Amino acid sequence: MVRAQRGERDRYQPISSSLCASSDPLQVAAALLEVYPFSTLYIADLDAIRHVGHHLQTVAALRAAFPRLELWVDAGFSRADDCKPWQTLEVSCVVGSESQPDADSALRLIEHLGRERAILSLDSLNGEFRGPPALLQNPGHWPERIIAMTLSRVGSHSGPDLELLRNLIDRNSNSKIYAAGGVRHGQDLQTLAGMGVAGALIASALHDGHIKAGDLG
User: Cα–Cα distance between 37 and 169 in angstroms, integer?
Assistant: First the structure.
């Protein structure tokens, strides 16, 4: 398991956490659950996203160890066949915009997964949307759950992209919007909740001890 840093994937290093001494995914997951009884774990399989392998067996081990957790997995899915081996693990497949060849392919994949089960990650890096522009411009076709993935803020402790989140909420009030990137502390979580953001993907702030159990829930 590595620590993400501003979307600069070639520079990611094995995770260092105040919660546990290991970078083993099962031990890290167990340590996170000791902080708070999270119901969902988000997993980005960076090798699969970059088409240089995958970590299906690691996710299978997580599923076996934590059967009650909902697992959201981004493994570079762009076709229905890509999802099949992962669906046997009963994970929720994340359709990352950066992995889509075109908007029509993305929408077909969302329909295949089911709009109530698919999760669409709208990815951006340094203010630029990563993916087919039409996918961003047609909110009526989005599934029920949307991740606003601001890669340049991931691991940065720079605060969430509030402007982007407000824009997405205004454009589609029927979808649940989840913030990803930059969350620093409990006050950020309160701000997001006050805006109507459904939830947030947090990692660095937990591992660094900036968010405690009392900030959650």
Answer: 27
